[in-house]
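tmp note - HTH gntR-type domain-containing protein
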Amino acid sequence: MDQIRQTIDRNSTVRLYSQIKQILVGELRNANGSDAPVLTEAGLIKRFHVSRAPVRQALAELVESGYVVRHRAKGTFPVQGLNVHLPPAMELGGG
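out:
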């Protein structure tokens, strides 16, 4: 099934890394195991047309929030059995 991929809004007051993180959280939450998106820095840079800094920040926050795990020289992997509810502060535009 084809999914419409969300894009970032460069006119928004929400920082780029926060927008990227929120998009990825939605994709991770909607993925079914093998459907889980592959998260590579290079792929995300190309997808969102941003520099490395916002991608690295978004991935770091996904790790901190427990959505993904990162293994040096191996990649970034979704946490299995992800069933997380976002607190209001983590919603797009939250504080």
